[in-house]
Structures are given as structure tokens and as C-alpha cells.
């Protein structure tokens, strides 16, 4: 991957993806002792930054590939983003999900016009079905993170940040499969290698951070967390994001559940935004983390919540 790929991505996706605001946070600036800004990636119509990578991947397909359609197995923000972008481009999209996926998600995907293949008891079975469809019908699999076009799409956030706040010194990024961190980190470090990249994950089932520690991909049991969008493995056959995260991340943080909750509440109280747990890990981290050099940017990643989710926060 080279920097030009990210500029190409930006040009490709500009009709589908609008730049997001960068907002100064008086509250987090006071708490951390340095100017803090929020990058509002929850403000995309599809609810998360995932639209950037999904749109770039779809737009980079050949006409022949577009005709054969695409498939994916993520039911979270990536599935939603892929279905949303595919509909805009008239590409047929099949989302493979397990029978366990809740009705709310199912109906959201249906409303986006995606074909649904429901099979098996868990995500792994859905992934198997997805690969079957790909080999049987020639559909292209749109991977949630481990794909250069997806990483380049997420990297367009880095280009926007350099324009909006060229003096930034640190960026705090929620970390799961690492596509987001790889894309933003790649762009910022190319522009200035001294920009510091911090990756934040919940303490439970933090697969990427455990893998980095071990020096090889590990598998972990998925446990309940408020930051559900950060769950999931990084793939035993990981080709890009494991090594990119290893070389780009300066600091890895693991966050307890109560801190994620405090992050959520702070964003609601002081910024009047409702986001999901995964999007609030950076806020939770900065709540009592003195910072020596700023400005700092928090990437606010998504808002895939409903009233039931909010009830769970209150009860947890
Ligand atoms: C996917 C996602 C992340 C993590 O992105 P990765 O590229 O998998 O590291 C963070 N927050 C939200 C809301 C997401 O949907």
C-alpha cells in the first residue's frame, strides 16, 4: 500500500462519503490538560466510518465483478455499510448471518435491500457460507478490515485530519481488526512519523492486543462487553492489519467496562451525542489520563445503538 492509494480512495468515494466534522471538546481538554478534538465518524448516514472502506472496495471492483455481486458475513457496522453502499451503486449484496442475529439487525439489513442468508448457530458458520457463495457464484467477499482497499478507505480519515488540524500530535483509535488504525496510522505517519498512534480496546476478548503481545495471531472466546463492535477475531490468515498495527501503533490501551460506560455518559452529557460502546473507548481512556503533548484527536467511530442498548448500559 502506498499513500497514493488513499488519495485514490478519497476521490472514488467522494460521491458516497462526505467528510465528517472535527469538534473541539472543552470537557476532554480540561480533563487531559491538552486540546482534544472529536472526529465525528458516527455522523455518516450509515452510522459508522465503515462506509469509507466498504465504498472504496466496492468502487474498485471491475464491471464484471460488480455484475456478479458481493457478499459479506459481518452483521454489525460493516455489513450495514456494505449493504448501504451496494444499494447506492446497484450491486447485489448478500449478507450471511447466523440464526442468532437479533431481529433488529435483520430488519435493518433487509431495509437496506440486502439479500440475507441465514445459517448456523454462530458467525463462523456464516463465514463458511459466505466463502461458499463466493466460490459458487463468483461473488466478491468484502472483508471488514483485512483488505488493502478497505484499509485505504479508512485511511481517508487521516487525510481529512491533516487538513482539519495539521498540528495534531496524537490520535486515539478504537481497535478491533485493525483496519481503522492501519489506515489512519499509515497516512499520519507518512506525513509525520512523530504523530503518536494510540489503540484502545476493551479488556475482555482483546484479540489484536493479545496477538501483538504473543507475536502471533491468537483466538479468544468472545465475552460480553459494552463495546460489542470491537469483538471478533483477526483471522488466522491475517495478511495486512496484524503487521501494520504492530508497526504503526505506539501505545495499546485495554479499558475496563466501567470506563467505557463513563466514556459513553461523558459524550452524552458534554457533547449531546449517543454513540455505541466501541466508539466511546477513547473517551473513557482520556477521562483520567493526563496527556503531555497535544492536540489529541479521538475517533468517534459509530452509533449503532437503540433503546434496548441504552437500557443495557443503565442496567450494567
Ligand atoms: C469496526 C469498528 C471499529 C474497529 O475497527 P477495526 O478496523 O476493526 O479495528 C471501531 N468502532 C466501531 C463502531 C466499529 O464498527
From TrEMBL:
The protein's required cofactors: pyridoxal 5'-phosphate
Pfam families given in the database record: PALP (PF00291)
Superkingdom, taxonomy of origin: Bacteria
Gene3D superfamilies documented for this protein: 3.40.50.1100
The name this protein goes by in its record: Pyridoxal-phosphate dependent enzyme
Keyword DNA repair: no
The keyword Repeat appears for this protein: no
Domain Tryptophan synthase beta chain-like PALP: 15-302
CDD domains: Thr-dehyd
InterPro entries in UniProt: Ser/Thr_Dehydratase, TrpB-like_PALP, TrpB-like_PALP_sf
Keywords, comma-separated and alphabetical: Lyase, Pyridoxal phosphate
